[in-house]
Design a protein that fits this description.
- By secondary structure, this protein is α/β, with parallel strands linked by helices.
- The chain has 5 helices and 4 strands.
- A 4-stranded parallel beta sheet has the order 1-4-2-3, covered by helices on one side.
- Helix 2 runs antiparallel to helix 3.
- It is globular, with a radius of gyration of 14 Å.
- The chain starts with a strand and ends in a 7-residue tail after the last helix.
- The relative contact order is 0.28.
């Protein structure tokens, strides 16, 4: 299984080294034209719920709790198809997870990268 998963901001220039480019935000990034994004996929259903995203507010002090709640959300039945699809893509291709978030190290893309690579064990 390929474990070459990276993450970064969608506003950064794409690279041939990106592999599959997957947007993992629920809403389309402001000011980004679809052609400029050069996406392979947009997987809205792996993004945090609107409620969780609003609660988190990208406050780094809430990141550990955000991560815990988000990993719980990823196990919900309504997300199963999207999460299994993302795992399948990551099993066969290099993947770059994209987000519009300014602080990518405290984002759902970072949590997904850990989750896909098994870099950290789930806390729940």
């Amino acid at each position: 299984m390929t474990k070459d998963i990276t993450y970064r901001r969608i506003y950064e220039e794409s690279s041939p080294d990106d592999g599959k480019r997957v947007l993992v935000d629920r809403v389309w990034p402001r000011g980004m034209r679809k052609e400029a994004a050069q996406l392979d996929e947009w997987l809205r259903d792996v993004a945090p719920s609107t409620e969780l995203r609003r609660w988190y507010g990208h406050e780094p002090g809430r990141f550990d709790e955000f991560r815990r709640r988000y990993l719980t959300e990823l196990r919900e039945p309504e997300r199963q198809e999207a999460t299994e699809h993302l795992r399948a893509v990551a099993a066969h291709d290099k993947v770059t997870l994209l987000t519009a978030t300014h602080d990518v190290d405290h984002s759902q893309a970072a949590v997904l990268a850990e989750w896909l690579t098994g870099a950290r064990t789930s806390t729940t």
